[in-house]
Design a protein that fits this description.
The structure is a single chain. The chain has about 300 residues and is mainly alpha-helical. About 75% of the residues lie in helices and about 0% in strands. The chain is built from 14 helices and no strands. α2 packs across α9. The chain is globular and about 55 Å long.
Length: about 300
């Protein structure tokens, strides 16, 4: 319990420093955007590559991944019930907001400082980037343009640096190949910068936002936040018990399920020109709401 709480404390302090820097640090207006882009395009891909390359290939296809996938699919479906009558683009983005986990930007820090095992996020990242993302982008393209090219759908994941890094890392893990030290050391060093920079940038983003403005997206946004931060971890916990996962794995998949909505969803909504407010508010509110939920899960795990 003390170890987990210290992990949350580390995350909280770094986020607070980012918030203070963004509010009173006198930084250029584009600092947050540049930091986010640097993290997305360089730092996090290096981290994902290092973690995937060093992982046991067997952990990529296990019962915990089945639990994570099932919990996400159930939340996708449940949220669709709250957006009946809305346009299909809004329904797709809302469903994604309810079940697409921020396994990279929040999951990696939580796995690093709380679960003490960064490899736990690799199967979820793999599932989301290689399976869910191509399907979601294809569906959004179809409903917003009326057509979709299969070539575009297949190429879409390969435009994402996280996907490319993940694939390369998995190839090394499966084949047993190792990078020479002259490459491995700088790759690891760059990757290690991802977690603190992500948290600093997130802290900068926490000021000056008006949330849940009156409108048709208020209800679906609230539903997405509840599903993502409360229902999804409850489903993951129940499914883990059905599949008889050991306590450590049950704790891990429950924590991963309680992570907030991924920032990727806003990018997908932006590319399709639909449900931007819903995606933005769901990401922000679920990120705030996940903190007490994660603490409660940790406390319950410690007491059982």
């Amino acid at each position: 319990m003390v170890s987990a709480l210290s992990g949350f404390a580390v995350i909280g302090v770094i986020v607070l420093v980012g918030w203070v820097a963004g509010r009173w640090g006198g930084l250029p207006e584009e600092t947050e955007a540049v930091g986010g882009r640097l993290t997305f395009a360089v730092l996090t891909p290096f981290l994902i590559f290092s973690v995937a390359a060093a992982s046991d290939p067997g952990v990529l296809f296990t019962r915990p991944l089945v639990v994570s996938a099932a919990a996400a699919l159930l939340c996708f479906g449940l949220h669709a019930l709250t957006t009946r009558g809305r346009d299909r683009g809004t329904r797709i983005v809302g469903a994604l907001a309810a079940g697409y986990t921020n396994a990279t930007y929040i999951g990696v820090p939580v796995a690093t400082y709380v679960l003490r095992d960064t490899a736990l996020v690799v199967p979820i990242v793999m599932l989301q980037l290689l399976v869910i993302t191509p399907i979601a982008l294809t569906m959004l393209q179809v409903v917003t343009t009326g057509h979709s090219s299969w070539r575009t759908s297949l190429r879409a994941p390969l435009r994402n640096p996280l996907t490319v890094a993940l694939l390369l890392g998995v190839i090394l893990a499966v084949t047993g190949l190792k990078l020479p030290g002259v490459l491995a050391q700088p790759v690891d060093a760059i990757g290690q910068a991802a977690v603190p920079v992500v948290l600093l940038v997130f802290g900068m983003s926490l000021s000056g936002r008006r949330l849940l403005a009156p409108g048709p997206d208020r209800g679906p946004t609230a539903a997405a936040v509840v599903l993502k931060t409360a229902v999804m971890p409850a489903l993951a916990f129940a499914l883990a018990h059905v599949l008889r996962l050991p306590p450590t794995q049950t704790y891990g998949v429950t924590v991963m399920a309680a992570l907030p909505t991924a920032q990727n969803i806003f990018l997908y909504a932006q590319s399709a020109g639909t449900a931007l407010i819903l995606a933005r508010d769901a990401i922000f509110l679920s990120t705030l709401a996940c903190v007490p939920v994660l603490l409660a899960i940790t406390l319950l795990h410690t007491l059982t």
